[in-house]
Design brief:
Blueprint lengths: L3 E2 L8 E17 L2 H13 L4 H24 L4 E11 L4 E15 L5
Parallel strand pairs: 1-3
Antiparallel strand pairs: 2-4, 3-4
Length: 112
């Protein structure tokens, strides 16, 4: 089943039938010490921190996929109000959480 994901509290063209619950997914990645040192150096001179951006993008994708799996498990077919948070847990660990409201929704019929 394809889960619809929206950052807003509604989905255009869809009717929300039921709020199923809140769900979240997370991803924890390790920052490599050498990469972090290089990234810190680049940040001081204004360079793009691609390694760090890449880790965060991978983590966001993994957290979103985990959220979608959770939404399917509790019986929803859509997620509204999608949000992400990023936290530095301990030395070298970064957690990205994706969370939202799982709903059951149906597509509205369009009139011509």
């Amino acid at each position: 089943m394809k889960i619809i994901v929206s950052t807003t509290d509604s989905i255009p063209g869809w009717l929300i039938l039921e709020h199923v619950g809140i769900a979240w997914g997370s991803s924890v990645k390790t920052k490599h010490i050498i990469r972090e040192f290089v990234s810190l150096t680049k940040s001081f001179i204004g360079g793009n921190i691609r390694d760090y951006s890449s880790v965060l993008n991978e983590s966001r994708s993994a957290a979103l996929q985990d959220l979608i799996v959770q939404a399917e498990k509790i019986g929803g077919n859509a997620i509204i109000g999608l949000n992400f948070t990023t936290s530095s847990l301990s030395s070298g660990l970064v957690e990205v959480c994706a969370y939202g409201t799982v709903v059951k929704a149906k597509r509205l019929k369009t009139s011509r």
